[in-house]
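Reading a protein record of the kind used here takes only a little practice. These numbers are not coordinates but entries in a learned vocabulary of local backbone shapes. Here is one such record, which you should read through line by line.
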Amino acid sequence: MADPSVKSVETAMLRIAYLEHGPSNGWPVILSHGFPYDVHAFDDVAAILAQAGARVIVPYTRGFGPTRFISDEAMRSGQQAARGADIIHLADALRLERPILGGFDWGGNACCSAAALWPERIGGLVSYAGYDVIDVSAQRNPNAPSFERVIWYQHLFQTERGRDCLAAHRRDLCRILWQEWSPGWQFDDATFARSAIAFDNPDFVDVVIHCYRWVFGLAAGDPALQPLEDRLAKKPVVTVPTVTIDGTADPLKPGGTADHARMFVGPHEHHVVDAGHNLPQQAPRAFADAVLRVRDWLA
């Protein structure tokens, strides 16, 4: 049975499912989740922002939850240009004027990509993990062994054995990632189960596997998106007002991202929060405060 709280809107590529919080005439915010999470990562953040007068849109990203591709023939791409464009198309479909974007993990990458490519369409940005635009050429180079161990799942996904593992054991695999990436977060079974339903999307495995193979330069992207990827490869600076956030206990971001400051040439602050990778769910007040800080700059 469909969840009556979930709305949807069609773009040229997707039927994007989303949750909406706050007044319909509120100042617009789009919050974008990552892998392997879902819209519920932002439940508490959205509630705080709605109380402050925001209209908060929280979409299921491609490959998650009720979001679906319009065409069976469409490439199940997980690359950054696709996910960044999805946010812009969502804003257009909902007629949101210069929304503030906020995201983490895949969502941070998508929001950074959208802000870098379409600054005239974006009011401001909250980005977990700094300037989160993927440099595929750099990904071809090895990291220190200690970090390669942390991203074991990315190596697994390069093989068909890894695809089969994700398909057959998606909940077990994703729960391990929740535990490893946010070591201080004591979530319960119900919290995980509520989000894990989103992994049953029929495109989940294809989109996830393509994302990580594309990141390693081992899978081709969508040819129609190559001009956007070419622009992102030049590392365009972000000009919109931005707050970047690091979590102190995130093994995916050792040392943090304070050195990314040069990539933000508009108003910019960098916050450090005592949390792991899933910061919106662990420290929702801190994430919401970052959005409110951007809103203050725009007022």
Notes: The chain has 13 helices and nine strands. The first strand starts at residue 7 and ends at 10. The domain at 7-298 is CATH 3.40.50.1820 (Rossmann fold). The radius of gyration is 18 Å.
